[in-house]
Amino acid sequence: MIEIDPNLNQYLEKHTNEEPDLLRELMIETHQATTQPHMASGHYQGRILSMISKLIQPKTILEIGTFTGYATLCLAEGLAENGKIITLDINDELKYIGEKYFERSPYKNQIEYRIGPASEQMKTIEKESLDLVFIDADKQTYPEYYECSIDLLRNGGVILMDNVLWYGKVYDENANDKRTVILRDLNERVVKDSRVESLILPVRDGITLIRKK
Ligand SMILES: C[S@@+](CC[C@H](N)C(=O)[O-])C[C@H]1O[C@@H](n2cnc3c(N)ncnc32)[C@H](O)[C@@H]1O
């Protein structure tokens, strides 16, 4: 994550809508049951995802990388009536946590939780059927997720791509590990891609907001 002034962080959280109780509970369980709780979006980023989803009012959302389901529930807050969110994860070990909180949420009938490699699962989704995609899984496959998401999105649809600043390493010329290079190259490609409009939000580890033209 990009280091931000703790005072600024506190101020942002205090002047952003409160974290819903169910999500607060989910975050506590995520800390207790997992070794990498920071992977969950959390309060501030979660409210951003919720707000963007509410502005779009998507009929169909795809999330790549469920983890414990925190962002799934934030994104679901903006779903159109009878809309649905498909969330994908390769790991079934934390499925019991996501399922428990999905079941307790008002969106329980709108969440389709699939276990398996995302690239395989994405092949089963109809082209130009999605309104919003949240890319938040293995970084080495981001270029493939990006291309595939463009095909699956309708015109005017939106991609949110998380961790694009990669701890600030994408703009550190001395950082050249594999994931950093992949993300740096992808950021270059996205900003030059004539099929989309895009900007990077400096939120947590960086989120690219991309609109398919
Ligand atoms: C950063 S976490 C997702 C966090 C969640 N979106 C949130 O904001 O609360 C990344 C997740 O991607 C999953 N993942 C990694 N490789 C994957 C793959 N090839 N296909 C699907 N999911 C994968 C991991 O198991 C992990 O749960």
Percent of residues in helices: 25-40%
Q: Total domains, how many?
A: 1
Computed Rg: 16 Å
Strand order of the largest sheet: 3-2-1-4-5-7-6
For the record, the CATH class is Alpha Beta
Number of strands: 7
Shape: globular
Strand share of the residues? 15-25%
Helix/strand order, N-terminal first: HHHEHEHEHEHEHEE
Level-2 CATH architecture: 3-Layer(aba) Sandwich
CATH homologous superfamily classification: Vaccinia Virus protein VP39
**Low-confidence stretches at least 5 residues in length (pLDDT < 50)?**
none
Q: Measure the end-to-end span.
A: 30 Å
Give a structural overview.
- The protein is of the alpha/beta class.
- It has a single domain, classed as 3-Layer(aba) Sandwich (Rossmann fold).
- The protein is 40% helix and 21% strand.
- The chain is built from 8 helices and 7 strands; from the N terminus they run αααβαβαβαβαβαββ.
- The chain has helices at residues 6-14, 21-33, 42-56, 70-76, 95-104, 118-122, 142-152, 178-192, and strands at 60-64, 84-89, 111-115, 130-135, 153-162, 196-201, 207-212.
- The chain has a 7-stranded mixed beta sheet, with helices on both faces.
- α3 packs parallel to α4.
- It is globular and about 45 Å long.
- The chain starts with 5 loop residues before the first helix and ends with a strand.
- The relative contact order is 0.13.
- The model has no long low-confidence stretch (mean pLDDT 97).
- It binds S-adenosylmethionine.
- S-adenosylmethionine is lined by residues 39-41, 65-67, 70-71, 88-91, 117-118, 136-138, 141.
